[in-house]
Amino acid sequence: MKDGCEVKICGITNIEDALSAAREGADYLGVVVEVSYSPRSLTVEGAREIFSRTPLPAVALVYQMSPERIKYLVNSLHPHALQFLNLAPETITWCKKEFTELECWQSLHLPPAGEGLDRENVLAQIKAGCEAGADVIVLDTAAVVGGTQRYGGTGRTSDWQLVRELGVACTVPLFLAGGINPANVQAAIKVVNPEGIDLCSGVEAQPGKKSPDKIRALMQAVRETIREATSERNG
Fold this sequence. Notes:
The protein has helices at residues 15-23, 44-53, 67-77, 89-98, 119-132, 160-167, 185-192, 212-233; strands at 6-9, 28-32, 58-62, 81-84, 103-110, 136-145, 148-151, 174-177, 196-199, 204-206, 209-210. It is an alpha/beta fold. The two termini are 14 Å apart.
């Protein structure tokens, strides 16, 4: 694996969970902003306390948000990054010109493990995101949950071996998302070898509320995996 693996705790809905993620050593937090299908979505106004008080770089996740609303979000929340849940290369290019200090992350969605995948289409999406100026590509899982199609936050894993193969085409840091939890995070890192992991439901006590114990267990597992890999490289 690489020298380290960053961790983003996503779906944060309150400042207490944001501070808990920071205490346990997470690298980023994510807040879903005005995404109608997400049970963890906050309005721009509702997210303001988290963005203003968190000690971590905060990422705002958006879906098909208009440029005017993006401007309002960025000027109101001052996020470290925008993460686009829909493929939005033109919007990424625009954002990089409009907000020169803002990172843009692109989520791309794979089917759950065991379901069919259009490999060439995914590779084309990775290429489009990278060429548009994305700073990070997040390979996540899309699935129908409770009768609703959801892009991320599904609790479902994709085919990690395939993610590793697809990641070769990625020219920017690759984050793995989708169904990661304290019990499987070590396997996820060892199989995919990503620059980071991005998870939400895997460290929740209930939808929208994180479990400090699960966050702690996750971070301990990540650190142990990194120590093992470092020890193996050093002989």
